[in-house]
Amino acid sequence: MSAVKLLPGVYWVGVVDWNVRAFHGHTYITKRGSTYNSYLIVDEKIALIDTVYGPFSDQLLANIAEIVPPEKIDYIISNHGETDHSGSLPALKKACPNAKHFGTAKVKETLEKMYYLGLDLHVVKSGDTLSLGKKTLSFIEAPMLHWPDSMFTYLAEDALLFPNDAFGQHLASSARFSDEVDAGALIEEAEAYFANILWPFSSMVLRKIDELVKMKLPVKMIAPSHGVIWRKDPMQIVNSYVEWAKNTTRKKVVIAYETMWGSTEKMAYRIVDGLVSEGVEVKLYDVAHTDNTEMIREMLYARGYIFGSSTHDNNMLPNLAMFLEFLKGLKPTGRKAAAFGSFGWAGGAVKEMESFIASPGIEIVQPGLSVKFVPNADELKKCFEFGVEFAKKLV
Ligand code: FEO
Fold first, then answer.
1. Beta carbon of 170 within 6 Å of any ligand 1 atom
2. How many angstroms is it from 36 CA to the middle of ligand 1?
3. d(Cα 88, Cα 55) in Å, to the nearest integer?
């Protein structure tokens, strides 16, 4: 896509990656694609905020060239070193070899070790400013939102915040602004982004937002480095981040299970009935046929997690084990959990799941439920009661 004017002298020069489906390796399924946003500010001096993923370098340079010859760029700001935002630096270094480069001390360390280009990066700290002429950039370090090197850049004269990954969404679209896309898809992708990337750093998110509020910076637009730009009521996404980071949950349960021959699935369905009979909102997923990204998004608001697996070699099935490993890394807190599953000649999965998921943030609130081979009517009744009992623990 061509460059888009956001405000006088401020342009989006990023790229839309319509076809990306696996992001961060395969840890994030980007079912709606993504964008890598780069912003060009044209004043007496010309600044570029962040670049794009390396394979799209030519597109970035072509978009810049629609506005100014790339060699005219005076300053490059790296808000974050991850390759989806820095991958075009080698191409840029050739296109504008005299541009001065700015970022945090950690971003300098990151980029030096990633590209070995001898980048002469000028280290900036919170409170430092860079005049472009009539416009001024201010820098706000934002460690762990979501890397130690992360930084926000603020354009005071336009009340425009460039927070890099924070407030982003993996959403490819021909529109550039939040008020031009489907509102349901947008909030779903913003929620998925927070849950899958920023959840473990919730306390830092709250601290940074509190710090920004105390700075009393007017914010008319938030331009993240993925997805659309928050234009209409930009504080809406900031308020959502506060709600998510405060670990707000509701009477909701996510059941994630994996089944060998269908018995564990039969148990899962009756557990759902028990939960629903107590007025609980439920989401049920067979982990072998659902992507982690969607399940994790649903887990953000769920107060309870129930895990099910058939026993295989005295252990849980591998797709569930992988999912639990991923979930653990996101460090959910204040959640209640239980486990269930069927077995053949020897059990083991329920015990393994319980010992794996128990953590300071996840409390096992009732004994696990195991069924030998195929559940009979009495055992299915027990599954229903298992759901009812769990529902009563969700207060
Ligand atoms: Fe942390 Fe979008 O990269």
1. no
2. 9
3. 8
- Write down the catalytic residue from 11, 154, 193, 257: 193
Active site residue: 28, 80, 191, 241, which one? 80
Residue nearest to atom 3 of ligand 1 (CA): 82
109 CA distance to ligand 1 middle (Å): 16
Residue nearest to atom 2 of ligand 1 (CA): 165
Residue 4 CB contacts under 8 Å (≥ 6 apart), including other chains? 11, 12, 176
296 and 328 assigned to the same domain: yes
Q: Give catalytic status of residue 84 as yes or no.
A: yes
Query: Which range marks the domain in which residue 52 is found?
Result: 4-245
Q: In the prediction, which pLDDT does 154 show?
A: 98
Output the DSSP codes for 303-337: EEEEEEE--BTTB--HHHHHHHHHHHHT---SEEE
Final residue of a domain: which of 196, 217, 245? Answer: 245
- 101 and 10 housed in the same domain: yes
Instruction: Note the pLDDT tens digit of each residue in 289-335.
Output: 999 999 999 999 999 999 999 999 999 999 999 999 999 999 999 99
Q: What are phi and psi of 21, to 5 degrees?
A: -125, -25
Q: Kindly give the distance from the C-alpha atom of residue 13 to the centroid of ligand 1, in angstroms, as a whole number.
A: 17
Give the global pTM. 0.96
**Do residues 107 and 226 share a domain?**
yes
Confidence of residue 1 (pLDDT cuts 50, 70, 90): confident
CA atoms of 154 and 220, how far apart (whole Å)? 11
Point out the domain boundary residue: 245, 276, 304. 245
Q: Mark whether 24 is an active-site residue.
A: yes
